[in-house]
Amino acid sequence: MSDRALQVVRLVWVLGYLVGTTTHVVDLVLGGTEVYASFPTTVRLFWVSLTVVDPLVVVLLLLRRRAGVVLGVVVIVVDVAVNGTVLALTEGLSFAGLVNQTLFAVVVLATARPLWVWFGRPAHLARYDS
After folding, report:
1. Which of 51, 61, 99, 101 has the fewest CB atoms lying closer than 10 Å?
2. Are the CB atoms for 37 and 44 separated by under 8 Å?
3. What is the rounded distance in angstroms from the CA atom of residue 123 to the CA atom of residue 71?
4. How far apart are CA 87 and CA 98, in angstroms?
5. 107 φ, ψ (degrees, to nearest 5)
6. Residue 91, by phi and psi: left (phi above 0), alpha (psi -120 to 50) or beta?
7. Do residues 59 and 22 make contact, with C-beta atoms less than 8 angstroms apart?
8. Which pTM was predicted?
9. Residues 60, 69, 82, 20, CA torsion sign
C-alpha cells in the first residue's frame, strides 16, 4: 500500500474514532452522568470510558504509534460486541448505528496490518514507499 493510501486509511480511522468521541461526549453533555442509566453498570462504564479512549486512539494514530493500531482494534471489536449484545437483549440501540459501526470495524480490521507496518517505519522513510 502506498504512503498516500496509508495516510487516507489513517484519516478514515481518525474520523471514525472522532465520530465515536463526539457521540459519547454529546450523550454526556445532553444526558448528564445518568445518560445510560437504563443499561447495566458495566455497559455504562464502558460507554463513558470511550469519551477518553476514543480520543486517545486518535492521538496515537496521529503520532504514528503502533499502540494506536492495537487500541483501535480492541476498542472497535469490543464496542461492536457490546453494542450488538445490548441491541439483541434490550432493543435500546439503533440497528442502523450498529451496522455503520460494524462496517467501520471491517475497515479497521482489514487495514490494521498495513498501518502497523507503516507505523513501524521511520516517518522520514515512509514517504518514499510505493
Report:
1. 99
2. yes
3. 20
4. 8
5. -60, -45
6. left
7. no
8. 0.88
9. positive
